C-alpha cells in the first residue's frame, strides 16, 4: 500500500471507531480481516496513524475546526508528526486509494490555525470532565503534563537479575537499539517508530529464557521503592498478571516468602508461566476461592504488603490513547471504593513495624494523596515514610530523581513529563511497632 492509501485506510478505521464506539484494537482487527491483502507493515502503519489521531483527538479537531475522522487524521499529521501543509497535500493527492485533495478550508486550517487559544483540556487532549482533577494535580502545568501523557511511549524492559545482568541483556538486544533507562538500575529502553511496530521482543532468546520482562520504567521503580528484601514475608495483594510480583521476587533473590493473590482469578492466569520463565521459586499464588480468606495464615505477619491498586489507569494513557476518551466519571467512583477495600485488607496483613506500599498508575489526586489521607485517618497506626528514604533506593540517581518527581506529604508521583515514565503514584507507609 502507498502512504496515501494507508492514510485513507486509517481515516476509515477512525470513522468506524467513532461511529460504532468500539475500541481501536477491535476496529483495526476488523479492518485487517476485511483487507487480507494488507501486509504486516501496512497494518502497523495504519495502526500508528489511528493511534496518533486518538492521541490528538481533541486538539486536531480544534486545529481543523472540524471533528470528522478525516480532519482529526489531517490535524494529527501536523500536530503529532510535524508534517507541513504541502507534505499533507501530497498524501491527499486524489489518486486511486488516496484521500481526496485538501479543500481550501483544510489548507487554510493546516497553514494558519494554532492551539494558542485552545482551552486546557483541548490543548492537552483529555476529557473535559477531568479538568478540575488535572488542575488539582498539576495546576498551570496541566497542558504540558497532559500533552506528555498523550505522546508515544517507548518499550521498556526490566532485566531479571535472577537470570541475567543488564549489560548482557543490553548486548543481546543491541540489534533493537536497547539502551539503559535513565532511572531504574534494571531498565532497558527501546524507542519505537511512528508505526508503533512491535519489535518482537517476545521472540528474543533473552526473553524466552527469562532474562527480561516487559515493564514500564515507572512500574519498575514502584517495585524498587517498596524496599522488598531477601528473607522477608511479602504479600502482593493485587498481583494481576504479575508484573510487580516478578520484580519483587527478583529483589528477594529467591529468599523469603512471596504470596501473590488478586480478587479476580482470571487476572492471575498468566502469572504461573511468567514466574516459571523468570526462575522464581519462592512465590505462592493464592487464587481466590469464593468467600474463603486465602491469606488467613498471613494475617498480621507480613513484613511488606504491596497494593498495586485497581485504578483509572490515567498514568498509562500514552499506551492506550483511546481508553481516556472512553473513561466516564463513574469509573473513578468505582475505583475509589475498590481502593478503600483493598487498603483495609492490606492494613490487617502488615505486622507491627512492617510496611505497606500503595501504588497506582493514575495521576488523579483522589486516587493517590486523597486515598492515603483518608487511610491515615482510618488507620492511625500507620505513617508515611519520608520520600528521601524511599528514593534512596536509586543510589547516586536519587538526588536528580527527587528533583524530577512530584512530591506530596503522602507520596511521590512520576509522570511522563517529569520522569519520562508512565504516571505512577507510590506511597510507602510503616505500621507502628
Ligand atoms: C493495577 S492491576 C495489577 C497489576 C499487576 N500488579 C502488575 O504489576 O502486573 C490491579 C489489580 O487489582 C485487582 N483487584 C481489584 N480489586 C481488588 C481487591 N479488592 N482485592 C484484590 N485485588 C483487587 C484487579 O483484579 C487487578 O488485577
Could you walk me through the main structural features you see in this protein, from its secondary elements to its overall organization?
The protein is α/β, with parallel strands linked by helices and 433 residues long. The chain folds into 3 domains: 3-114, no CATH class; 155-214, Sun protein, domain 3 (Alpha-Beta Plaits), CATH 3.30.70; 217-431, 3-Layer(aba) Sandwich (Rossmann fold). 44% of the residues lie in helices and 15% in strands. The protein is built from 21 helices and 13 strands. Strands 5, 6, 7, 8, 9, 10, 11, 12 and 13 form a 9-stranded mixed sheet that branches. A 4-stranded antiparallel sheet has the order 2-3-1-4. Helix 1 (3-20) crosses helix 2 (24-34). It is globular, with a radius of gyration of 23 Å. It starts with a helix and ends with a strand. The model has no long low-confidence stretch (mean pLDDT 96). Residues 237-244, 262-264, 267, 308, 310, 338, 341-342 line the site of S-adenosylmethionine.
Provide a quick synopsis of the model.
This protein is of the alpha/beta class. Helices cover 44% and strands 15% of the residues. The structure holds S-adenosylmethionine.
Amino acid at each position: 500500500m502507498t502512504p496515501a492509501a494507508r492514510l485513507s485506510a486509517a481515516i476509515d478505521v477512525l470513522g468506524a471507531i467513532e461511529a460504532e464506539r468500539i475500541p481501536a484494537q477491535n476496529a483495526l482487527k476488523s479492518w485487517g480481516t476485511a483487507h487480507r491483502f494488507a501486509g504486516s507493515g501496512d497494518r502497523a502503519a495504519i495502526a500508528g496513524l489511528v493511534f496518533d489521531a486518538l492521541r490528538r483527538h481533541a486538539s486536531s479537531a480544534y486545529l481543523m475546526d472540524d471533528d470528522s475522522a478525516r480532519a482529526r487524521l489531517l490535524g494529527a499529521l501536523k500536530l503529532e508528526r510535524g508534517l507541513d501543509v504541502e507534505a499533507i497535500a501530497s498524501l491527499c493527492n486524489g489518486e486511486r486509494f488516496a484521500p481526496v485533495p485538501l479543500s481550501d478550508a483544510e489548507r487554510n486550517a493546516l497553514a494558519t490555525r494554532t492551539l494558542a487559544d485552545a482551552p486546557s483540556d483541548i490543548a492537552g487532549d483529555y476529557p473535559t470532565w477531568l479538568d478540575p482533577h488535572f488542575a488539582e494535580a498539576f495546576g498551570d502545568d496541566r497542558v504540558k503534563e497532559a500533552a506528555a501523557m498523550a505522546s508515544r511511549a517507548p518499550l521498556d524492559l526490566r532485566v531479571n537479575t535472577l537470570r541475567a545482568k543488564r549489560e548482557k541483556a543490553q548486548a543481546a538486544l543491541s540489534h533493537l537499539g536497547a539502551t539503559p533507562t535513565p532511572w531504574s538500575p534494571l531498565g532497558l529502553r527501546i524507542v519505537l517508530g511512528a508505526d508503533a511496530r512491535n519489535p518482537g521482543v517476545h521472540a528474543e532468546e533473552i526473553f524466552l529464557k527469562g532474562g527480561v520482562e516487559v515493564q514500564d520504567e515507572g512500574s519498575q521503580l514502584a517495585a524498587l521503592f517498596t524496599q522488598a528484601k531477601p528473607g522477608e514475608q511479602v504479600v502482593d495483594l493485587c498481583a494481576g498478571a504479575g508484573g510487580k510480583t516478578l520484580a519483587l521476587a527478583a529483589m528477594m533473590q529467591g529468599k523469603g516468602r512471596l504470596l501473590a493473590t488478586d480478587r479476580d482469578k482470571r487476572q492471575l492466569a498468566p502469572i504461573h508461566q511468567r514466574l516459571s520463565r523468570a526462575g522464581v521459586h519462592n512465590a505462592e499464588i493464592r487464587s481466590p476461592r469464593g468467600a474463603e480468606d486465602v491469606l488467613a495464615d498471613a494475617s498480621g505477619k507480613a513484613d511488606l504488603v504491596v497494593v498495586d491498586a485497581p485504578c483509572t489507569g490515567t498514568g498509562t494513557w500514552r499506551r492506550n490513547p483511546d481508553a481516556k476518551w472512553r473513561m466516564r466519571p463513574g469509573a473513578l467512583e468505582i475505583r475509589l471504593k475498590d481502593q478503600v477495600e483493598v487498603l483495609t485488607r492490606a492494613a490487617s496483613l502488615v505486622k507491627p513495624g512492617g510496611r505497606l506500599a500503595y501504588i497506582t498508575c493514575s495521576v488523579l489526586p483522589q486516587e493517590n494523596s486523597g486515598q492515603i489521607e483518608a487511610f491515615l485517618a482510618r488507620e492511625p497506626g500507620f505513617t508515611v515514610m519520608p520520600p528521601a528514604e524511599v528514593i534512596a533506593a536509586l543510589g547516586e540517581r536519587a538526588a536528580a530523581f527527587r528533583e524530577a518527581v512530584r512530591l506530596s506529604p503522602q507520596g511521590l508521583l512520576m509522570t511522563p513529563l517529569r520522569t519520562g515514565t508512565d504516571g505512577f503514584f507510590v506511597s510507602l507507609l510503616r505500621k507502628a511497632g
